[in-house]
Amino acid sequence: MVRSTLVNECIAEFIGTWILVFVGTATVATAVTTGAQMGLWQVAVVWGFGLTLAIFASAHVSGAHLNPAVTIALAISTPGSFRRYKTLPYVIAQMLGAITAGTCVFLLYDSALVRYEKLNDITRGGYNSTLTAMAFGEYFPNPQVVKSGALLQEDISPTRAMVIEAAGTMFLMLMIRALTDAENGARPSDQQVPFYIGFTLASIISFVAPFTQAGLNPARDLGPRIVAALAGWGSVALPGPNLGFWVYIFGPIIGSVTGTLLYDFIVLSTYVNKLGTHEAIMASGGGVPRTRDSALRPRNGTGTSIVNGIMEEDVDIARKLSFSAAIDAVDAQDVSKVQIVIRIRPQATKPLAADDADAAATTQDDDCFRVVSDTALIAYPPKTSQAYRSTGTATSFQFTRIFAPQTAQFELFEATTRPVLDAAFAGRNGLVFAYGVTNSGKTYTISGTDEQPGVLPRALHYVMESMQQRKENAQHQIAKVTASYLEIYNDNVFDLLALPTKKRRALRLQDCDGKIQVRALTEKPIRTLHDGEDLLIMGKNNKQVAETNCNTDSSRSHCVFTLSFYKQMTGSSSALFSKVSIVDLAGSERGAKTGATGIRMQEASKINGSLMNLMRCLETLRWNQHHPAQLQKMVPFRESKLTRENLVGRKQGPVVMIVAVNPSSYEFDETLRTLKYSAVARELVPAQARPVTRRTARLYDLDGRLKKRRRASIEAENENIGKSESRKTNSTTVSEPDERDSRIEQLEALVGELRKENGELRRDLAASNAAKLEMEMGIRAEVGSEMQNQLQQMRTYYNEMIERQQERVELATSARKRRHAATTLTSPASNSKRLTPSRADHEALERTVRQLQEQLRESEAEMRRMRLKYEKEMKKHQRRRQVPVDL
Fold first, then answer.
1. Polar residues: which segments have biased composition (predicted)?
2. Which terminus of the chain has fewer CB atoms gathered within 10 Å of its CB, N or C?
């Protein structure tokens, strides 16, 4: 099919505007002349249906603006894929469509209007002819309402009318932007959007029409008004009473511009700033925001629109994961596009973490991701997924290439990695990285197996083979090739080629001349293929791998393998020529499905956090591309080692993103988010390399601090340079070194202020910590005192019980002795057995005494333990207060 042109888009705008204005204006004319309509709400509903039909007729070609106010608002606001040069052709096409629709309405209803004017004694062109002219244009207040006296009894001023029109149009524009924004998780499906927009228009007309007839569209009012002026209404139609026609031109434009700016500055900026986790993106609908003039077109995963089955202009994307905070304005044709390729893994018989019910659902919904062509993919949410419960609509995606499950490793390497290596031999850096959820086949794609090697072993084989061929063909310009292998585990960088030790040492990242480098990272030369394979085996043995419910061999870190190509220089020296990084990103995962606990849960949290920050960087870069300099945002590269580490050098080169897809319905929601994230990368433009000023880099690090070099020598050097330049030019003006000295003094003053502020903050922090510690010790002392009181009460209580028990025993013994004495005197023989108490009573009393004594000992031991703990805490607190705060 042929790509949509500006002429086709203007024709679509003409047709859509004609449908909208003809249906709505004819409805008003019918209500005026025949009384067939039942009321204002029915007229409003027909207007809404007319807009719905117009959108369906033109959205797939032009985006269905149908309103000069909408077109002007999209042109004035920060431009997306809508080009400002289209503004005037769109407005002209909309005006022509409205004028044509007004002419058709006049030809259809002229005789009916004449009869109505005779019956109501209306002179066409007279003051009261607004009752018939309102069939074409709008008037304030609504002539029909004023006539009936049902609502308004006083006139509405032009200013008030314009405010009403602006408010109604602003509300309409806000709803259009919200309904067509893919980041809105509550938005309906693309097939339902026109109905919701039509319903919104009908609602606005229902409460605005009694005041101003609800123009909301300059073309809808001005086009038929011109026809009415030419058909006999004259000045009543144009310019109208109180010159009111301008209200329906400027009011909607002001309201539409205000609505789209509010949406850009409030809604979209809030979305970007609040991206915190993968779950937050899922809750917000995920996906890629669509560009402005494609807001009403069929949705696809790349965020661009589909016109006649063909994608609109593709946007170039970034070449590496750690780039620059601002995007340069570069010609897109001069920057090579990133390749977003999809590799679908074969369907597993049953997910490891799924139960029988999930397995049955997976069998029934195994066709979740349907490959339409080599570049198109449609995701159908299964009934068990969250996407089905929220929207239930399919999502289409467009990528560079899609590889089916039966794709061989060699075919994938030839299509993705080999061109990157060829570019490296030509002096261009490259990047290949695999991205996807856990258990989607990323490690298999990168590393492979002994029988089916992945892209990384094949890359080593291809490099060694190419080196030999270039040497034989006298094309050898690469002196040597070295390799480094690192992993980012729990947001710490570790060297996979370092000798194993009891405790691995985390490597530090440092800023070096505008680049991020890993300190003490091992870089080993590769002379033969066997050397490279040994490095891969060594790295595989050292990297972190564990078993989860979703994957028996799950990578717990991000692994980066970098090949450095060095070019032969004069003599025996060599210089870095290019770099290629092959990255195996750990998969995002959910603890509920992986069953991760303890250290596995901590690893998953770090993995998800680094991937989330990567997506935040991509989103912010994309925001910076589409907004002016004053709205640029800081890209959060430094919040994660993954995004801070500079994977590729400064020179531009190809980048390939291999998105691993698990087709199981059990992992559908996570895989859908992965596809939406991948689509974000297609809209990024890589930053051009900026030359680094050697003198600036020599004076200051990237964090603004002076490097460890004597400033006196630098000032002396600058002074000598200034004198030399002064002699050459014989000028008495201040030399450049003096200006640099002044700038240095300003920066030093700023550094001094920052250090002072830092010291104050540290003192405040120390005071806060001390106050918190004192509060904690006070609470501990209060709790200990209360516990000690309780123990003392318990001790007193048990002592009293023992004393009372002893008193009872003594009283019982004395009573028995008295009874014995009395019985002995009367009958010594019969009462001799009563001289001694019962053995059972004696044992019971002894047991009671022992229990009370045991409880007493336990209480005393608890009191001693708490007293020792309290004394230890107090000593620790006193030692902390004696340690001075290091500022």
1. 823-835
2. N
